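Mods, move this if it's the wrong board.
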Amino acid sequence: MERSDAKSGMLARFGCCKAASSCVIGNILAEISPPCNNCGNDDISITGTTATGSTITIYITKEGFDIEGSAADIELVERIRRERCIHGEERKSGIWSDSKG
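Not the wrong board. Structure tokens:
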């Protein structure tokens, strides 16, 4: 599979189930962009802006997904996977509250 020329410079591969992939992708992307750079490729890719404000491209694979992005975004993916949520650290420290009152 050929990868586009990532301006942000890093490629990381993550192996996980579909549910975990959905969680990470849904949490890291703040907005999705048209896939013009990968037009004609025979793969599933999602390009967008992350929660940190940078651009990444996610390639869906049989084993999970690959990400082209910044070091900060790769670390964010690792944190989401470790904490099982983008808000994991806040939930542990009590900053995040599920209560309505």
